[in-house]
Amino acid sequence: MRFLVIKQDTSLQALTAQLVKDGDHAPAALDRLRALNPHLDLQRVGKGAVLLLPDSPGYKNEGDKAGDDGFDLFAKEVTAALRDGTTRATDALAANEAQEKEFNKLFKSAAIRKLSDEDTALRGRLDTVATRASAAAKVSKEVAPQLEALKKGAAEELKKLRGLLG
């Protein structure tokens, strides 16, 4: 079993030209390709998609063998991308939390309290902002564990895929 990471958006016609050796075997080869890749719409394969390829004489020698370093490199790229993405998301959540603390401190200040006591419209707007900030903080607290679960789940799925391919 081999796999190919698609470098740019492509089509079934382009994949056929790239992967299938003999035009006579093309229909059977494409049926096999569809069976191995139910997760993809082979009419429009997007950049970054992972295409599983059988080891058979009807296919050109494209892609990386699952036992080669190719899969390990792919797994490392996926793991690094998830790590970097979750780190950025976690940093953004921390920045939002710090901003919320500053807003809360400001809302509780004597000057804002005095202004809001004198202006009911301002009081209403401040209450709305406080409610939205509280809801956003709640969502932020729920997102962090979900990000960790995503990383863990991806690692488990990569391990399963490694077992299937190799």
What does this protein look like?
- The mean pLDDT is 82.
- The protein has two domains: 2-65; 69-165.
- It is mainly alpha-helical.
- Helix 3 runs antiparallel to helix 5 and helix 4 (110-118) packs across helix 5 (120-165).
- The chain has helices at 12-19, 26-36, 69-107, 110-118, 120-165; strands at 2-5, 50-53, 64-65.
- This is LysM domain-containing protein.
Count of folded domains: 2
Radius of gyration: 26 Å
The proportion of strand residues reads 5-15%
Q: What integer is the average pLDDT?
A: 82
User: What is the overall number of helices?
Assistant: 5
Strand order of the largest sheet: 2-1-3
The assigned structural class equals: mainly alpha
User: Span from first to last CA?
Assistant: 8 Å
Shape: elongated
Largest sheet, in brief, is: 3 strands, antiparallel
* Oligomeric state of the chains present here: single chain
Q: Would you count the extended β strands for me?
A: 3
Q: What share of residues is helical?
A: 55-70%
Poorly predicted runs: none
N-to-C SSE series? EHHEEHHH
Briefly summarize what is shown.
The protein is mainly alpha-helical. 68% of the residues lie in helices and 6% in strands.
